[in-house]
Write a structure and sequence with these properties.
6-stranded mixed β-sheet; globular; 4-stranded antiparallel β-sheet; 21% helix; alpha/beta
Amino acid sequence: MKNIILHDKEFRPFICAEKIDQVIANMAERMNKDLNKEAPLFLSILNGSFMFTSDLIKQITIPGTQISFIKVASYAGTCSSGEVKELIGLKEEIKNRTVVILEDIIDSGRSMSHLLNYLATKNPRRVVVATLFHKPKAAICQVPIDYSGIELENDFVVGRGLDYDGLGRNYPDLYILNT
């Protein structure tokens, strides 16, 4: 792995794809065991979670599993904008269902808090939160996380679905901003 340039910023290699793959495999194994009798609806948060969702869902063996997508955004450049926008809504009925939210990264917690409040109005049986990456030091809103992959410091990262103004999502490894 070598440094990459996205727009005006340089990023250095941080976490290799093999380590991320193992974390996802472990998470899938736990979910298969924990949620086996629930026929959950996996709700993938676009755009960033598309890679995490794809990698995870291929390893989910729970009967009756369904998947859907919703888009919630609060980022502009390298910082959270502080404003949450629901861009694409949920179409499936979730009343009395177990919903598993799949998120690429939870940092400020604003988007997740907004989404959890929104889903609560739909009366699901329960909502489970799974995130590939988590930045606890960036938290402004505390949200419950049932499955957390890799804990990060409050640094800006790209790759594995995460972007910098639209670039970098395609890298299988995770890169950190060179400061």
